[in-house]
C-alpha cells in the first residue's frame, strides 16, 4: 500500500491498508532481460534488500541512441502503473503523454469518442519503448547501488535447478562468467532464452506456435497531425478492410501509426519496395489514412 499522493494520477488501488509478508532471508537473484518488466522486477527486488544481477544482451538505451525496433510505442494503463514504485510512476508520467480516451474515425468522415475504462480516473500513458527503457534504466543506476547490471551480455547456459547461470559479454576478448544464484528470473521475452528453455522442460505447457502478423509502421508529423485535426489526448483508430490502424500521439505532437491487416510479405521483413506500393495498399484498404500519411 502506498499513501495518498498530492498527484491526482498517483493513487493506491485501495484505501485499505494491506500487510504483505516478505521473506526475511535476503536472496542473491539473477534477472535475465532488461526490458521494462526486467528492470521493474529488479528495482522491486532491490528495494526489499535483495542482491540483484541484471543481464541484458543489448546495449543500454539513452538519448540519441538507436530506437527499439520491437515496439514503436508502448501504452501503459493508468491502473497498471501501481505495479511500479511511486518514483518510476513520476518518471513515466513526465516522459510520456497522458491519454484520456480514444477516437474512432469512421469511413464516412465522422468521429466517435469514447473514454477509457470504467471510471473517470482510468487513463493511458503513451511512451516510446526506448524512452521508457532509458528512463527506468537511469533510475535503476541512481537508486539501486546493489543492483549489478551487465549490458551487452548474453546468457549461454542455465541450470535453473541449481541456480547457475553462464553468460558472456559481447566483447570478443571477454571470458565466460558463471555464478550461482538463489533465484533466476527470466524476463527476456517470447524470443528469449527463458522461453526456449521452458519449452524443452518436462511438465511445462507453452505455446510453441504464434501466427505471424504483418504490419506497417508510419509517422504523421506534428504539422500534419495539426492540419488533420487529430486529437493528441486520445488514441486514434481507423477501421479498414482486413484490420484496423492505430495512431498513438507522441510527446512532440507527432502520431505513430501501426497498420495491421492482410499485408504482403513476411513478418519483420520489408513488405513494400517503394512509396507507390504503400499508397496503393492504403488506397485499397483504408483511404482515410492517405491524406495524413502521404503528406
The main pleated sheet reads as: 6 strands, mixed
Please write the string of helix (H) and strand (E) elements.
EHEEHEEEEHEEEEEHEHEEEHH
Structural class: alpha/beta
Low-pLDDT stretches:
1-5, 9-22, 265-270
Measured between the Cα atoms of the first and last residue, the distance is 49 Å
Give the C-alpha Rg. 22 Å
Indicate the mean pLDDT.
Answer: 76
- What is the approximate shape? elongated
Strand order, biggest sheet?
6-5-14-15-16-13
Number of helices: 7
Determine the strand fraction and express it as a percent band.
25-35%
Instruction: Report the strand count.
Output: 16
Fold topology:
Layout: E1 28-32, H1 36-47, E2 51-55, E3 74-77, H2 86-95, E4 97-99, E5 101-105, E6 111-115, E7 124-127, H3 129-143, E8 147-150, E9 153-159, E10 164-169, E11 177-180, E12 183-186, H4 193-199, E13 215-220, H5 222-227, E14 234-240, E15 243-249, E16 255-260, H6 275-285, H7 290-294
Parallel strand pairs: 1-2, 1-12, 2-8, 5-14
Antiparallel strand pairs: 3-7, 4-7, 5-6, 9-10, 10-11, 13-16, 14-15, 15-16
Helix pairs in contact: 1-3, 2-3
